[in-house]
Write a structure and sequence with these properties.
Blueprint (H helix, E strand, L loop, with lengths): L2 H8 L7 H7 L2 H17 L6 H25 L1 H4 L17 H22 L2 H22 L6 H5 L1 H4 L1 H10 L4 H24 L3 H5 L4 H4 L1 H22 L8 H23 L11 H29 L6
Helix pairs in contact: 2-4, 3-4, 3-10, 3-16, 4-6, 4-7, 4-10, 6-7, 7-10, 10-11, 11-14, 11-16, 14-15, 15-16
Length: about 325
């Protein structure tokens, strides 16, 4: 009997617990969704009642988690192959694919409807489109079809601050689009750095990531190009209404470090010792996490100072 069959059989015992279903929500990814959506909401020029804001963030989080559950349902076959994902609830035999699908769909509908009732239809519409984009456009289509999957598909992770902004303002603005663009341009170098030290995972799973289709050397060049394109966007946001001296200072430092990391990856010698082979990639990947967190923390801090009439241009 195959591993997949064993896992499928085990998952039908009905022993799945709360932790197993919570893991379907991809809590680490969901935490990023919550944080960036919260920043978008608080950076908006229109105030929101705390109860409305709390409810909106909760439903955005549920919608983000629903996307994760549906992604795990669709990707269960390749998750069983990849070392990084074998421990997820479905390949581990904790939850069946049918349970994951029902769970994800239920949460998707609930989050969209409740966000519409708690805030407005623009925010709910953006959430609905985000779920659709991540599950259908990225997971079902782009991920297994083109090496540009993470470039286009990265839009799904870039929508949360726009949703948060729409909760407060009922619309879309240059500032919310800038926050979207910051995440959108950050996603490829962040994810490709991960792909570089995940070795053969994506090749074994038949997923056409850039490292598989174009090789590691080309991936390194792509990381450098996208990082160089990202820097002026991130720094330029400092001269808009969501920016200011604090944000600009943080952006200059973080982008200098990120560009240096991308150059280090581009210059790295593939023939270096096994023990040092992926040290640069792992360092830049970790830096990319701090990079995004630092920018959105700076936006939040700038907005807080602005509410007291401080820190703006």
């Amino acid at each position: 009997m195959s591993d997949a069959s064993i896992n499928s059989t085990t998952a039908q015992t009905g022993d799945a617990g709360f932790g197993d279903f919570f893991a379907l929500l991809k809590p680490r990814v969901m935490s990023l969704v919550v944080f960036t959506a919260l920043v978008g909401l608080l950076a908006a020029p229109v105030g929101v009642h705390p109860v409305v804001g709390l409810a909106a963030i909760l439903f955005i989080a549920v919608g983000g988690g629903a996307s994760g559950a549906l992604n795990m349902w669709w990707d269960a076959d390749i998750d069983r192959v990849m070392k990084r994902t074998r421990g997820r609830p479905i390949p581990a035999g904790k939850v069946t694919e049918g349970e994951a699908f029902a769970f994800g769909m239920t949460l998707s509908v609930m989050s969209i409807v409740m966000l519409a009732l708690a805030s407005n239809f623009v925010a709910a519409g953006l959430l609905a489109f985000t779920i659709f984009f991540y599950v259908v456009i990225y997971s079902m289509w782009l991920k297994r079809w083109t090496p540009q999957n993470i470039v286009i598909g990265g839009a799904a992770g870039a929508f949360p601050p726009m949703i948060g902004w729409a909760v407060a303002t009922g619309g879309i603005s240059v500032e919310s689009v800038l926050m979207f663009t910051l995440i959108f341009m950050w996603t490829p170098p962040h994810f490709w750095a991960l792909c570089l030290f995940m070795k053969s995972d994506y090749e074994d799973a038949g997923v056409p990531m850039l490292t598989v289709t174009h090789g590691r050397k080309s991936t390194r060049k792509h990381i450098l190009v996208y990082t160089l394109l990202l820097a002026p966007i991130a720094i330029g946001a400092g001269f808009t209404s969501i920016g200011g001296p604090v944000y600009l200072s943080v952006a200059v430092i973080l982008n200098a470090l990120f560009v240096k990391g991308a150059i280090d990856i581009w210059k790295r010698d593939e023939a270096m010792a096994e023990a040092d082979q992926y040290r640069t990639e792992k360092r830049v990947f970790k830096l990319s996490l701090y990079y995004l967190f630092g920018h959105f923390t700076a936006i939040l801090l700038q907005a807080t100072l602005g509410s007291y009439g401080l820190g703006g241009w």
